[in-house]
Design brief:
CATH topology of the largest domain: Beta-Lactamase
Strand order of the largest sheet: 4-3-7-6-5
CATH superfamily of the largest domain: PAS domain
Helix content: 40-55%
Largest sheet: 5 strands, antiparallel
CATH architecture of the largest domain: 2-Layer Sandwich
Structural class: alpha+beta
Oligomer: single chain
Length: 602
Amino acid sequence: MIRLSPNGRGTALRFDASSVSPGKLIERLLGALAPNMRLATPPDAPALWFDPQRIRHSTRGARRLLGPVADPGAPLSSLLEAFAAQDRKLSEEPEHALAERLRRLAERGEPFRRRVRLSDGRNYDVEGAPSGPLCVLLIRDVHDECEALERARAAQLRAEGEVALLRAALDRVPVPVWREDEAGAPHWRNAAAEATPQPEAPAEPVRIPGAPGAAFVGRAPPAPAGPDGSLRIYADTVAETFAHLRVGLAIYDANRRLILHNPAMAEIFGAKPEWLANRPSLRETLDRLREARRLPEQADYPAWRAALFTLFDDPAHARYEDVWELPDGRGVHVVGRPHPLGGIAFMFEDFTESMALQRWRSTAVEVRRATLDMLGEGVVVFGSDGQTRIANPACRAIWGLDAPFGPDPAASLPPHVADFAEACARGGDAAATLWRRIRDAVSGGGGRSVWRGRVDLADGRTLDARVAPMPDGSTLAAFTDVTDGVRVAAALRERAEALEAAAAMRDALVDQLSHRLRTPLNAIFGFAQMLHSGRAGPLSPQQAEYLEAVERAAGLLLEGVEHMSELISTHDPQRPVRRPPDLSGPPHEIGACRRRTGAGKA
């Protein structure tokens, strides 16, 4: 027994020398020693121990990561070949390749440490070093650390870019700005501060806390004095406010010259900002926009322009509002109001989309109303508050609501569902029941489900009614006058019943006639056969001729009966069709034909 006790812990190996070969003994010994010779690493971390010929020991993590080439006993050449294939994929230089460094470690004991990307696409730190009689290879997964490092580098680059951008922006500020360190000494200045040899801190500095012990210090610009300074502050405030709005702004002074505009005004009319910056007059602005077809077409343009000029005769009371429909199809809402410092401020709002939406909505409403008016079905819609929204002419005609309703002659419809129900109650109890159901559906007491039914009015008309909820909370009621259809159906039923009765009477009559005719005919044919047979004695030639005439006449009568039966059978499919007998032959053939057709039966 061999016992190893590193750090107070022991590992025991028992073996029987008579049953273990020397090679197996060495492998067991290395397997017991290898875990105690490894570097500091987690128990399941990828690690393996090897000599120049083969792998002696490996952890589960190493076998899971590298596969069969890391199994104990596997030749080292297999591991080298696997690393060489990986090096070729990564285009590694030969002397820095992982396979070459591993070979040097196994042959010369040269330690190394490298960061590589293995076949699973993750980054690993690979460290190899001699460990007693063997060499140890430790592999540590650092993929997450690499990604975190890349993110930190990207964040640093972004921060550096933002710092450079902020410094460039501060260089354009006409106010001296500099940054002080912990001792209070400036170590960065903007362009305005660089222009001043020794910038002094203002009496009322503007300090922006920065890093610990540092601050940005700036000199606030002095407020302009006098009316010109106030005007400039007001103009700057208005320009900054309206620069971000979609509503165009153009302010003209008392001399009708442009003193302020925002970018939206230039965008709406397609004017160049450089030209507007030259402060054109109102006449120049209108003429230029007219040339560019950015103004509404006017039959008398000079008169229209002169009407705008008259606003400046009394700017304090000027009021202007109009919709300019431009040639390109756009609509611009123009509002002119007095400016506090004199002149007139014009505001331009491009409401093309709103106008198109309003037109589409108006068209949709008109199409819907025309569609409802053309329907033969009566339709009425009640809002969630019970007010009457829509009622087409068919509905008014069905319920007799063509006369004005109430004291207002223009009110041709009951304003509320209760008024509607009261006006239609003269249709009888069935109509009153129907409108109670409609009122319950509008108020929500009858639920919000679809209802269908048929109603018979007191005046003899019949209606198919349907009540259905609408998505916006309103309720639709539809009525179809099916009186004509019901009457036609009733008439058809009566006709069918009359035809069935007539057919029954005809069949009874035919049966009676057939029975009453066949009975004497059977007797005639019977006696004629008996006389022909000689049972009553011999017949003279004249008697035989008379007997044949009797039989022929009886046959003709039987043929008529058969034809009548066949005619009846064409209207009654259940009756069999019978062929009439051929009575043109001799008397004995006539008797045979009579027997075949069943004429002998009563």
